[in-house]
Amino acid sequence: MDKYHFYLDGESSLDYGIYLQNPLSFSKPSRRYSTITIPGRSGTLHNDENTFEDVTCQAKCFVLQTSAENAVGDATEWLMSGGIRRLETPEDPDVFRMCRVTEGYDTDVRLNILGVFDAVITCQPERWLKSGEDELEIESGATLFNLWRESKPLIIAICSGAGDITLNDRTVSIAEYTGEIWIDCDIQNAYSDTENKNNLITVSNGEFPVLESGENVITFSGGVTAVKIIPRWWTL
After folding, report:
1. Class of CATH domain 130-235
2. What are the phi and psi torsion angles at 33 (to 5°)?
3. Rg of the chain over CA atoms, in angstroms?
4. Which of 110, 155, 170, 226 is 20 to 30 A off residue 79, Cα-Cα?
5. pLDDT, tens digit, for every residue of 6-18?
6. How far apart are CA 188 and CA 155, in angstroms?
7. How far apart are the C-alpha atoms of 114 and 23, rounded to whole Å?
8. SS3 label, residue 216
9. What whole-number distance in Å separates Cα of residue 55 and Cα of residue 112?
10. Where in the chain are the domains?
11. Residue 62 CB: number of other CB atoms within 10 A?
């Protein structure tokens, strides 16, 4: 029997006795549009928001063991626990998704050894590259090539005073500081350990840096003595 399975937050579904009848399969996410209606004009206008909708998958699951009804209860409790979780599959080993299990369905228990049930897994549209979690040491003036979609990196600055980091045409200026500052371009926060450091940074035109598709030039100066980047590569 092929042991189709998946992982949530690093835990295998097999650890909870959950098998899949088939590998998980997701369609490509749909682009999100807002619509505008104009009085006196037929039809609607569609504005591309440059974002994507979530995707869903109906996972056909089963457990095969004695006391199947109790086993299904334990299995679905694990599936439905928690909020946003990291989803990985053996069929797509180089990527992960962020998901939540949004629905569970009634269970069909047969002879109390086979419990069959469905679960709906809703994923955010991004397929995150595991290579995008690597911490890259950057030399000033270096070019970082993004093969994927525009990403919002995590920048780690090692400082011995005030300085600047420029990624393409966007600059982060850091006030007088000694130590590491982590600049999260996704949530637009700066911190060191658990201490907020937003008061130490200024971003040009209020825009945090991004890694554009293609070439990206990174420079740093002043009291910024070293820079590391976690690029957060992703695709659809």
Report:
1. mainly beta
2. -125, 145
3. 23
4. 110
5. 999 999 999 988 8
6. 11
7. 19
8. strand
9. 33
10. 7-125, 130-235
11. 20
